[in-house]
Design brief:
7 helices, two-stranded antiparallel ribbon, alpha+beta, 174 residues
Length: 174
């Protein structure tokens, strides 16, 4: 990892370069079948419920129970879903692209307590898209490659576990 300090007005800006590893899993299944498979195994994290917990200043045990009830069979939930293809299709050729923020707030919290900067990368993103030849792909950046920049053994260990679970998820839905 290379760190380059940029001196701008009292040296408050820091630039960090690091290498990210992208994984792309191709599928013989149609786009919608991959989407359906993904959404059937990943829980649906309803953000409005989280906002209610924050507003109520809910105790940790209640938060933990709510989060656990939303997790899918693989221990993840969809924190957000963006149908990029729907919007982008209005601007040119039809596109099938869906971006998911997928994670587990209980796991994210453990890493963020080590370094709040981790919040820039969790929950991790997973992209399902159909290329112009009609083939479906699942793509994500390996969490360990994004989080290795924090040089923290705990964060690295957890992110390597996430690497394995994301690979299992992508291969499983492909």
């Amino acid at each position: 990892m290379t760190t380059i300090d940029v001196k701008i007005q009292n040296e408050r800006v820091q630039t960090i370069n690091y290498t990210v590893t992208r994984v792309i899993v191709s599928s013989e299944k149609p786009f919608q079948e991959v989407i359906d498979a993904l959404e059937s195994v990943v829980g649906d994290g309803k953000y409005s419920v989280f906002e209610e917990l924050v507003a109520a200043e809910a105790p940790f045990e209640q938060v933990k129970n709510v989060v656990e009830s939303m997790l899918g069979e693989n221990g993840f939930m969809r924190m957000a879903t963006l149908n990029l293809g729907g919007l982008l299709s209005l601007m040119g050729k039809p596109k099938k692209i869906r971006l998911y923020l997928i994670g587990n707030p209980l796991i994210a919290n453990q890493m963020i307590e080590q370094n709040p900067g981790v919040g820039l990368y969790v929950p991790p993103r997973l992209l399902v898209y159909e290329d112009y030849e009609g083939k479906t792909h699942i793509a994500y950046d390996k969490p360990s490659s994004m989080l290795s920049q924090f040089d923290n053994g705990f964060i690295l260990k957890v992110s390597q576990m996430l690497d394995q679970r994301f690979q299992e998820l992508a291969v499983g839905i492909a």
